[in-house]
UniProtKB/TrEMBL annotation:
The gene is PDR16. This is Phosphatidylinositol transfer protein (PITP). It comes from Sporothrix stenoceras. PROSITE patterns: CRAL_TRIO. SUPFAM superfamilies: CRAL/TRIO domain (SSF52087), CRAL/TRIO N-terminal domain (SSF46938). Residues 341-359 have a biased composition (Low complexity). It holds the Pfam family CRAL_TRIO_N. InterPro entries: CRAL-TRIO_dom, CRAL-TRIO_dom_sf, CRAL/TRIO_N_dom, CRAL/TRIO_N_dom_sf, PI_Transfer_CRAL-TRIO.
Length: 390
């Protein structure tokens, strides 16, 4: 998955060559802040919400659903309903627990109807052939850096452009380090020879904002935006009324990104020191593999911990040796060791404790439905869809 000449050195820098792979770990001093402790009132509201969610047996169809996908709560749903997930929705609703419960169910319905877990690397691949979205490195608080390069737009507006962003946000979540639950969005509106207007359409912008604010609450840690032309300023003014006030506070325009991201993990196109060249044939399978392996490791720990609703994300990420309720007779998963510093190649996945796998099991052999490493969908089935850098 890339020759030694394209691998990162210990600090993730590219002085040994131009990097073409994702960076698996933050720098040693890029550490997430400690999680805030709950007040007594917040803890009570969380326990109420947890009890409600644990009682759910079915997911209802949304009122706007074109196809009824209601049905029993699945393991995918339970896996998604972590302690931190419930807390994100409580914070997003200003600790109104009934509103949080309503929004959680709405997101479960949306995830089914939108087909979030069915989006595959193969289906999304044409959207990212020019590298208009890249997950590369981490900021100084361990957030995954999600780069958007609108000037590299290569497709016409279509549903797949929005699916592209959803898919990439899901991959950010897969590779987030323990202790961190937000991302850093870095947007460069620099024009290119083929594209001088880098502002997305108003309808696409509104749809993306609605999805992110409604179904990914409390996920944006910081947004750093540079090279903002006047036409894009106009776009931001138009969509500002649709942006949550707390989100607006996280937007930083034309600031030095080195304040927020270690220079050795900040792409030179964003004025950092990281020499990175987007090669789709190298980067895309490497990102797919890294994300799939990290998700497989989390899923294995979730199963070992008894498939609990309200499981701790730090346990799933390997930071904690014990979850909320370790299954009887099951040895808790050991914390994940950091990937070897001298390579950017993803670590091997943890084996799923089913008796059918071993420590040498490949990602493909895990047969976890939501890994989506391969795509069996015929190309004709996706011919009507396309993508955006949002």
């Amino acid at each position: 998955m890339g020759s030694p000449e394209t691998q990162s050195e210990k600090d993730g820098s590219a002085s040994a060559g131009i990097l073409k792979l994702p960076i698996p770990q933050p720098t040693a001093d890029s550490v997430p802040p400690p999680r805030a402790e709950l007040t007594a009132d917040q803890a009570t509201k969380y326990e109420w919400l947890l009890e409600q969610v644990q009682s759910w047996t079915t997911v209802a169809a949304s009122k706007d659903s074109k196809e009824d996908k209601s049905g029993p709560l699945t393991d995918d749903d339970r896996f998604w309903l972590t302690r931190e997930c419930l807390l994100r929705y409580l914070r997003a609703t200003k600790w109104h627990e009934k509103d949080a419960a309503k929004r959680l169910m709405e997101t479960l319905s949306w995830r089914r109807e939108y087909g979030v877990d069915a989006l595959t690397a193969h289906h999304i691949s044409p959207e990212n052939e020019t590298g208009k979205q890249v997950l590369l490195g981490y900021d100084k608080q361990g957030r995954v850096c999600h780069y958007l390069n609108p000037g590299r737009q290569n497709t016409d507006p279509s549903p797949r452009q929005v699916q592209h962003l959803v898919y990439m946000v899901e991959r950010v979540i897969d590779i987030m380090p323990a202790g961190q639950e937000t991302l850093a969005l870095l947007i460069n509106f620099k024009t290119s020879k083929s594209r001088t207007n880098t502002a997305p359409g108003i309808s696409t912008g509104r749809e993306v904002l609605h999805i992110l604010q409604t179904h990914y609450p409390e996920r944006l840690g910081r947004a750093l935006i540079i090279n903002v032309p006047w036409v894009v300023w106009g776009f931001f003014k138009l969509i500002t009324p649709f942006i949550d006030p707390l989100t607006r506070e996280k937007l930083k325009f034309n600031e030095d990104m080195n304040q927020y991201v270690p220079a050795e993990q900040l792409w030179t196109e964003f004025l950092g020191k990281l020499e990175f060249d987007y090669d789709h044939d190298v980067y895309w399978p490497a990102l797919t593999k890294l994300a799939a392996e990290r998700r497989a490791e989390r899923l294995a720990r979730w199963e070992a911990g008894g498939k609990q609703i309200g499981e701790l994300e730090d346990f799933l990420a390997g930071k904690l040796a014990q979850g909320v309720k370790p299954a009887e007779g099951v040895v808790a998963a050991a914390p994940v060791a950091a990937a070897p510093a001298e390579t950017a190649t993803p670590a091997a996945p943890a084996a799923v404790e089913t008796g059918e796998t071993t420590a040498n099991t490949s990602v493909e052999d895990l047969k976890v439905a939501d890994l989506k490493v391969t795509d069996e969908t015929p190309a004709a089935a996706t011919e009507t869809q396309t993508a955006t850098a949002a």
